[in-house]
Amino acid sequence: MGLRPVRRRDATAWRAVRQVNRAWLTPWDATPPTGTQLAPSFPSMVSTLLREARAGRCLPFVITDDRRLVGQLTVGGIAYGSLRAAHIGYWVDERVAGRGITPTCVALAGDHCFRALGLHRLEIALRPENGPSRRVVEKLGFRYEGERPRYLHIDGDWRDHEVWALHVDEVPEGLLERWRRRRPT
Asked: In the predicted model, is pLDDT for residue 1 greater than 90?
């Protein structure tokens, strides 16, 4: 399992995983607030992500399991200067959920952000009723910081989100090492 940069040629595999997981992902998917815009096509989404990556504001990855695409993880909102922070969003195929793939990939991305990019803070915002996503942040030791009312437009309406965060000095051993130590064997 692992992460690799998203590629335009991932379109067929990405669409197939999203189609199979439509019911699993719809309650958590971002939607346009006006209701008039269509979701961007895969090529358009990838072009935007890659443009943001070239500008240093985003790290767009796909999550893999035995080289097969099983999800997506994006580090976004990368800010330097006195903030040095970013946020992480992710989704994974229901057929591989609960196997430790998502926490491992969040830990890999987090360590890259802390070590290679020199970031100080990472945030993950999740819907309060999204138990699987909450388990990811709890397993990795993110701190609950509070609620953001009507924070993101998800599944057709503005939805409340919980914010969980982690500072680099809270994981001197690295996030992946922390996860390995905490993970049941």
From this structure: no
